[in-house]
Write a structure and sequence with these properties.
Keywords: Acetylation, FAD, Fatty acid metabolism, Flavoprotein, Lipid metabolism, Mitochondrion, Oxidoreductase, Phosphoprotein, Transit peptide. One of its GO terms (biological process) is carboxylic acid catabolic process. Its main location: mitochondrion. The N and C termini lie far apart (55 Å). The protein is globular, with a radius of gyration of 22 Å. It has 16 helices and ten strands. A hairpin with a 5-residue loop joins strand 2 and strand 3 (223-233). Helix 9 packs antiparallel against helix 10 (179-191) and helix 11 (305-341) packs antiparallel against helix 12. It folds into three domains: 4-191, Acyl-CoA dehydrogenase/oxidase, N-terminal domain (Butyryl-Coa Dehydrogenase, subunit A, domain 1, Orthogonal Bundle); 195-306, Butyryl-CoA Dehydrogenase, subunit A, domain 2; 309-456, Butyryl-CoA Dehydrogenase, subunit A, domain 3. The chain has helices at 4-23, 26-38, 44-55, 59-67, 82-99, 103-109, 114-122, 141-152, 156-176, 179-191, 305-341, 353-381, 387-411, 413-416, 423-430, 440-456; strands at 195-198, 214-217, 223-233, 240-246, 256-262, 268-272, 283-293, 298-299, 343-344, 347-348.
Length: 457
Amino acid sequence: MSLRAPMLRATARAAARQQSLRSGSAVSATASVAPLRSQQRITPSSSNALSSARSFSSSSARGMAAEFESPFGINSLSKLSEEEEMLREAVQRFAQDVVAPKVEAMEENEKMDPEIIKGLFEQGLMSIETDPELGGAGGSFTAAIIVIEELAKVDPSVSVLCDVHNTLVNTVLRKYASKELQEKYMPKLSADTLGSFCLSEPASGSDAFAMKTSCKKDSNGDWIINGSKMWITNSAEAEFFIVFAQSDPSKGYKGINAFAVEKEHGVEIAKKEKKLGIKASSTCTVNFDEVKIPKENLIGEEGKGYKIAIEILNEGRVGIGAQMVGLAQGAFEKAVRYAHEREQFNKPVATFQGMQFQIAEAATQIEAARALVYNAARLKEEGRPFTKQAAMAKLFSSQVAQSVSGSAIEWCGGYGFTRESGLPKFWSDSKIGAIYEGTSNIQRATIYKLASAELDA
């Protein structure tokens, strides 16, 4: 059964609600959502899917949320709209029914199952914020964060594939590309074409703007790209790439440009890395040898690629924070269930006070990390500054993911140390959270700079 129909409705309604809240009061929000609902065309199959998605939820939790909803329009960060709850439930089902049975094999083979990628597209999870006219769901940024977190509870490799495609590739095109580029590529990126984001290089990791990949114009005004990118997520399966290149080193970061590049333009996928974690997620070197790109494929203004990279990575960091929260939650739930089943000294391990204290500490860390992530997401949706909050969310969530996944192994003893338990995968997957899309020290530097500026203001 496809869950695409209820998810499309859920994300569209969530987006409408967010737009209404930005433009008016809670009363105007209700008025704007009601017509949207009345205009929905519910077919028998989509109605059944909608009913199934709703029945999958925790009715008691939803009832409690509704009972305590603030009449003043301000709720806790954990409060989700009905549409966002529907989306979460639908993704949970997809993750358990489709992803979970394939996790072990993908981990052993270090390869993403093509059926997983196909399923993500079919369920509408690869175009969450994309305009419906371009084949997307027209959802909110928070909707994307919900999807990333839920997928990570089952497999962080699948989560990051979805994350990069949505928060980096799609968002660059939505925010900065010309209408012609959007119309050319976004329907494909919504339907079946995986995207990749090419920024890092052998000599430019944290110092991203020290890139050596070059771009120059030919006599017709088209661009020629030469160079190599490293550690590029989704690159083995991708057919579309956002590529950053330097046109004039003397201009420094102001010489950087961003391009929409198709694999068939001549992109070469080279060495695939053998990694500690997220093994099913492809990470490769990507080479460009006299790759000719039409002048129309320049994204944004010439020389403004650095601005695109900086702004887009802020959103990406919230996505990585969501991935790490989901990872921590997945490890936590698996280990705590085992601790309640495993008996020592004639009683469940979870009944020992020392174990309970550790579980309580981990639960608190996860809750705090989730609050940071969703706060950053909501701030972004409201159009308010969120750079500091995004850095905090990514930094803290990556620390929590490592801590909780490590503790989860210990709670399960010898079984936790076996790959069969699935817990070592969570732990090894967690380490990347402190590295990609800005290392932990880069996040600390960002937080310090912005926090200090606030004191001087």
